TrEMBL record, chain A:
InterPro entries: NDUC2
Keywords on record: Electron transport, Membrane, Mitochondrion, Mitochondrion inner membrane, Respiratory chain, Transmembrane, Transmembrane helix, Transport
Name the record gives this protein: NADH dehydrogenase [ubiquinone] 1 subunit C2
One Gene Ontology CC term in the entry: mitochondrial inner membrane
This protein's record includes keyword Mitochondrion: yes
Automatic annotation (TrEMBL), chain B:
Keyword annotations of the record: Electron transport, Membrane, Mitochondrion, Mitochondrion inner membrane, Respiratory chain, Transit peptide, Transmembrane, Transmembrane helix, Transport
Family, similarity comment: Belongs to the complex I NDUFC1 subunit family.
Compartment(s) of residence: Mitochondrion inner membrane
Lineage, highest ranks first: Eukaryota, Metazoa, Chordata, Craniata, Vertebrata
GO terms for cellular component: mitochondrial inner membrane; respiratory chain complex I
Subunit structure: Complex I is composed of 45 different subunits.
Protein name: NADH dehydrogenase [ubiquinone] 1 subunit C1, mitochondrial
Function text: Accessory subunit of the mitochondrial membrane respiratory chain NADH dehydrogenase (Complex I), that is believed not to be involved in catalysis. Complex I functions in the transfer of electrons from NADH to the respiratory chain. The immediate electron acceptor for the enzyme is believed to be ubiquinone.
Annotated InterPro entries: NDUFC1
Membrane topology summary: Single-pass membrane protein
Amino acid sequence: MSILPDESRSLLPPNIVNRNSLVLGGIGWAAVVLSNLGYRRPPLGSGVHRQILGLSIGWFIGYYATRRENYYYACRDRALFQYIKHHPEDFQLKEKKKLGEVLEPFHPVR
Amino acid sequence: MAAPLGLARRLLLPVRLPERALKRSAFIATKQYDNGPQWIKVALTLGAAAALWRLLFVIHKRDLKEYERRQKALCEKCTDIQN
């Protein structure tokens, strides 16, 4: 089972800036900052090149995660709509009743 | 005449040991951190990051083109059926 089968290329590829990329890029950056803390270096100021690399790796993995997520939900929606098409009897639209028909006639008692 | 004088002057000057060697403990092993930035590592790291970003943009562009090509093919099929 591949991560991204060929039919996933029929879907619109996600934007380069996407939520999974942001989150995983942040995690990669935080990993570098944590390792700086572990080595008793200044956490944010030292190893900026490593922080950039951590962010980039996380961003890259996040992009593929978003594509996989889009493919999964597209497959699920396709199955859902096919089921709805094949079983119309389960998905009848109810007739809309006006409220005046539902309520009893009003006889004021004064 | 000058050479032995120069030699004597060098021998008489106060000996300055490399200070870096003095600061390292004999009991705790640590890396030397005041050597300055290791530029080869920095260059490799930044190069790898730049390569990753370029790869990302290339893949995105390629898949966008593929998506548009497939959409066009689908539309052409639809118009054929209608005709």
